[in-house]
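Action item from last week, closing it out:
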Amino acid sequence: MPRQPVPALSVPTLAHGDFTLAADAPQNFTLVVFYRGLHCPICLRYLLELSRLLPEFEQRGVKVVAVSSDTAERAQAMADKLRAPGLRVGHSLPLAVARAWGLYISASRGMTSIGVQEPALFSEPGVFLVRADGTLYYGAVQTMPFARPHFDELRDALDFALAKDYPARGEYTAAS
């Protein structure tokens, strides 16, 4: 729920130690990008775009982490394809935590179009901006790999939101 605390998130990363959202301490936001895993060619393209824009997010006081339920080995294989050492890549996301974040869970359909076996279960994508105080500012969740938020549009929206002190929206919960 916008303006409310997000679920706890703590995962190991490949090259940046353990990631704990509550301890991340960004100037403005932490951008948490949940991706499907090594088996997903769309995720690779998506994370390549994220890594290209990483300096622009950092200039806006936004720390970035990409997280999947992949094992460390599979996450490393994805990182090797990305060649983006500045991108924090978290792995071993428990599916119960993925569900707490509202992510959808899929079962394996076997070998993918790129010849990589899907894990037995894995989470579908989600993108979240979390304020430094741990509350949700923005969230987008997909049921499949297609039609994700564009990082350049999110970057531009951040410029507006920061300049105008624009509040999180979608927080109304009373009966209409």
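Closing note: DSSP finds four helices and nine strands in the chain.
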